[in-house]
Amino acid sequence: MSHQEERLQFNKKIQLISVSLDGIITETDDHLFDWKEGSSIYDAHPFFEILRSFLEDPGDAPSEYNFPCIHIENKDTEKICDVTLKIDSKDILIILFDYTVKYHELNAFAQQKNESILRATKLELKNKYLIEKEKFKNNFIANINHEIRTPLTSILGFIEVLEKTKLSFEQSELSRIIKRESLHLNALIDDMIDISKIESGKLRLVEERFAFQDLVDGFVESYSKVAEKKGIAFETNIDPSIQEYLIGDSVRVYQILNNVLNNAFKFTEEGSVKLSITKNYQRTNKLTINFKIEDTGIGIMEENLEHLFERFTRFNTDKQISGTGLGLAIVQNLVDLMNGDIKVSSEVDKGTIFNIKLPFKFEISKPTPKRKKKKYSLPSSKKKFRILLVEDEEVTQYLVMKILITQGSFFVDLAIDGEEAIKCIERRNYDLILMDLKLSKIDGYKATHMIRNNYGDKVISEVPIIGFTAKANDAERDKCLRSGMDDFITKPFEQKDLLYKIIRQIAKKAAD
């Protein structure tokens, strides 16, 4: 087959060039490049200098060489070509295949693929970073929660002990200030934990039946005292048609209203604060309630309203007012979580109005009577009841021992970790164990599990155990009960709550 016949088999993307062994172009078309017959192939493009090395030892058999994606330029023409060189004893055939369009298409595709891979990798790394960041934040808050609540428990506990002693007026005032600031710190910790739960999607609403009027009465009672102290009016207007019992998360409803009311009283020095509660609509067993809280306080500048619900937002005012900067951010998140709505309007020096709409359900049935907290008393005994306190914080040890010994009905032994607690119960019988959960060597959960499962002696295995924890949630409660504890109490706690739980467990054990 002649070179011309070979050329005719290809389309316009092909250029066939016949070259003599001394490098002169003897035959060519101009499909790709305008190279003239009689000119030197070596002058056409530097790439073809490669022929010289192949011609030094051509051999007897024809040789073929393939070079993909060669960038060839000639005058105004620039192309990406696959180059084939066929060398025999008579001449050289050069086949150029124009790969320019396909090359750019593939290059663009590869670019897109690379960019897509990079975007996916970036997104994966970002997600991994966010997950690690969220994990770090949650661990940090959990550790801070425990580390702060432990000394806070001692501070509030000793204040209670101090309040029951004979104090001068000045000492009473100092005690009151310490207690107020400690409670403020405790509220800040609670707010931080709530924000963390909301952002991580771990906050779950509880639908339970509650007495709506009791919730309202609590606000009326507490804020009437605040209003009286500040010398302003607190007005309430409650729609009497609202059902007595509703179904919803009463704790979160309280948190929403309490935060907004607290702000209203903080920023109102004269005039009044009004709480109006009306039924917005009712359909079958569902209703929406509108809570309107308006004050005659300092108001909020219009440009600040859009930032009102952001975390740690504090606007400059003439009066320095304490606060966590988290309250309204929590309010907004809780309202959204409850599928409610919140709007605010304000005018500087005239006051602010919050309108909050929240959905509820209600039962069309006769309400059950409210359960009263059952009273317990220690069983009659000629000897004192012996308590084992398992706690590694020295201050908390002293506080609990002070509370119990002051009652006159208890002996208290001390163990600083779970391992020591096990040794104590093997040497002496106890009427109850107070078990801190975060202990070295053997923690409170494991120690409780061992007590419940490793002993055939029922005096040991069935001893009542109350856990100390800094986490006040259902998950922690379930974990305590699953480990074998009878009850748990959160830090910081009030003396009456601790004593109630201790007396209840001892009384229940005696009744068995």
Can you put this structure into words, describing what you see?
This protein has helices at residues 3-7, 41-44, 50-55, 100-163, 169-199, 212-230, 250-266, 302-305, 327-337, 394-407, 418-427, 444-453, 458-461, 474-483, 495-511, and strands at residues 14-20, 25-28, 63-74, 77-87, 91-98, 208-211, 233-238, 245-248, 272-283, 286-295, 341-347, 351-361, 385-390, 410-415, 432-436, 465-469, 487-490. By secondary structure, the chain is α/β, with parallel strands linked by helices. The chain has 4 domains: 3-98, 2-Layer Sandwich (Beta-Lactamase); 104-199, Signal transduction histidine kinase, dimerisation/phosphotransfer (DHp) domain (Helix Hairpins, Orthogonal Bundle), CATH 1.10.287; 208-361, Heat Shock Protein 90 (2-Layer Sandwich); 385-511, Rossmann fold. The protein is elongated. The mean pLDDT is 84. Pfam families: HATPase_c, HisKA, Response_reg. GO terms for molecular function: kinase activity. It comes from Aquimarina hainanensis. It is an enzyme of class 2 (transferase).
